[in-house]
Amino acid sequence: MALMRGLRSFSVLGTNYAYSYISSQVIPARTVSLMQPLSKNKEITITFIKANGERIKAKGEIGNSILDIVVNNDLDLDGYGACEGTLTCSTCHLVFSKDAFKNLSDQPTEEEIDMLDLAQERGPTSRLGCQVIVTEEQDGIEVRVPAIINDARQT
């Protein structure tokens, strides 16, 4: 009966804890998790082709932006994504093949087009990586990273 009076329970972030107080010691009685495991999105692979011909393969989850993939894989693309996806620079400028460009899930916004106007080596299949959300259709694509990264905030 003394143990029952000392039994207390509470919930922290979906996990129930029950502790019994014996003398001045706290002894965990039982732990039960009520949380579902976090599901991981399917991964895709993108190959970045640098101006010097170096090819860098990276994996990313469907639903991430290409900028997220560069950052999460700690890729060596100097200056890439300087504004962290706020559409105030053009450092994440990429050039897609015609087929890959056609399969992108969305069209560039007016703000993205304005930033692309300031990018070096812009072509008809240019996009800002921070604005491209990858889908399963982009698995295995190759994108060209221009030789000159232009930070539009400094022009």
Automatic annotation (TrEMBL):
Q: What is any one GO biological process for this UniProt entry?
A: P450-containing electron transport chain
Q: Which PROSITE patterns match?
A: 2FE2S_FER_2 (PS51085), ADX (PS00814)
The answer, when asked if Plastid is one of the entry's keywords, is no
| Assigned keywords, A-Z | 2Fe-2S, Iron, Iron-sulfur, Metal-binding
Q: Establish whether keyword Iron-sulfur is in the entry.
A: yes
Q: Which cofactor does it need?
A: [2Fe-2S] cluster
Q: Which GO terms describe its cellular component?
A: mitochondrion
Q: Which GO terms describe its molecular function?
A: 2 iron, 2 sulfur cluster binding; electron transfer activity; metal ion binding
Q: Which domain of life is it from?
A: Eukaryota
Q: What positions does the domain 2Fe-2S ferredoxin-type occupy?
A: 44-149
Name of the protein in its database record: Adrenodoxin, mitochondrial
Q: Tell me what organism the protein belongs to.
A: Cyphomyrmex costatus
